[in-house]
Amino acid sequence: MESSKQLVFIPGPGMGHLVAAVEIGKLLISRAHCLSITFIIIDLPIETRVHTYTKDLDDSTPPRLRFLHLSPPPQPQSKNLSNQEALLFETFNNSKQLVRDAIIQNFMTSSTTRLVGVTVDMFSDKMIQVATELGLPSYVFFTSSAAFLGLLFYAQTLKDEHNRDISDFKDSDTLLPVSTYVHPLPAKVLPTAMLDKIGRLHLPLSTARMIRQAKGIIINTFVELELHSIESLANDNGVPSLYPIGPIINLNQEPDESINSWLDEQQDSSVLFLCFGSYGSFDEEQLKKIAIALDHSGCCFLWSLRQPQVKGEIGASDDLAHPEQVLPDGFLTRTMHRGKVIGWVPQAAVLSHKSIGGFITHCGWNSILESLWFGVPMATWPMYAEQQVNAFELVVDLEMAVDIKMEYRSESPVLVTAEEIESAIRRLMFDSTEEKNGIREKMEELKDKSRRALLEGGSSYCFLESLIKEFKDQSSN
């Protein structure tokens, strides 16, 4: 009897990483009927809502896609890891033996299962070492842009070949010649981790070194969106094979009935949607400035508002129970006929609604892809991780978004004024300018291209075929 072909997938932390990983898993097994996928889920010492998500999926996913939860790994040695990125990287690093044992026990002792590889996330990149020890090929599922992948390699090359830390450019006006960006990249929009020489700089450098050891890189992007970046990476001999197979997004969200009912009452393309991700929150002063801008703009809006995060705490923010306590007096009353303040929201379901005409986003890559898929113009307000360079790519390189504050960082926020926010709202929603019309035209064009990329003969479809062939060839070796 022919052995079944099994792919192990070790997703990164949090919903943004896991949802995209599950969607690519569904896509793979729909196209490769010989393949089964097991997601190894590593428990984390912070709330990520992952358990609730996987429990709901257990009853609805195909039998060739399953989840294997591991017992929590040993707690990180550093007791004062208040930074989320450092905590997550260390937790995954401490889980290597747990993962190794799980792979051996569940797959390598079976005579009916043939492992074709191990796919890791950029946060679980140390698991490449486990795959290598076990003689298995490894692949990286890169959940951000091809442009940002090039920035990781640029910073690593700068250090390893020129003994120069990219953090040396902190607080400078330096423009960096990163090949995956069309325009020179301002140092002021570098991810905070890259500017933190004493603390976190080693994390992206280590990740870049590890990714170079993989057999292939699966990127959640598509050629028509990032042609320059993908060609730049493909021409670098030190970069593994690329498989841009996106956009991979979760389109199966259940809409919220109360939100949908309200949106149904609004005119087409009239509502501004504000949402800043699971970890995106502002202090009270900044929330008031946003409210003032919305109030003065006269724009219809749907605002996903999260609890301001307590300093030193990490993890996803909770919904704000009493928004009237932090918003300007009378704001909710004055805007009750044209605005709605909510908590957590099924973002893709909202973006798909015909009344949504603009999106103020934190520039998480999943959010960008969702906005592209539904053709919703964006205004960029990055907060953490690589979101500042995502904003730069959208606004400067691709000229398809309005900028609010590209260099904003939630770790050390500078107050964005109500006037700045209102100006961006008007440019996005009201002004009949060449900029606004050009952005809407590009979004409509990319909406079409993003869908055609996944159809038979499309760029992402063909790259996925190549990846499946890679897995099949591996199983026959």
Task: Give a written overview of the molecule.
- The structure is a single chain.
- The protein is an alpha/beta fold and 477 residues long.
- It has 18 helices and 15 strands.
- The protein has helices spanning 14-31, 50-58, 84-93, 96-108, 127-133, 146-162, 192-195, 202-211, 227-234, 257-264, 284-297, 331-334, 347-351, 365-374, 387-397, 418-429, 434-452, 459-476; strands at 4-10, 35-42, 65-70, 113-121, 138-142, 175-176, 185-186, 216-219, 241-244, 271-275, 300-304, 339-342, 356-361, 378-380, 401-403.
- The strands form three sheets. The protein has a seven-stranded parallel sheet, with helices on both faces. Strands 12-11-10-13-14-15 form a six-stranded parallel sheet, sandwiched between helices.
- Helix 5 (127-133) links the parallel strand 4 and strand 5.
- It is globular.
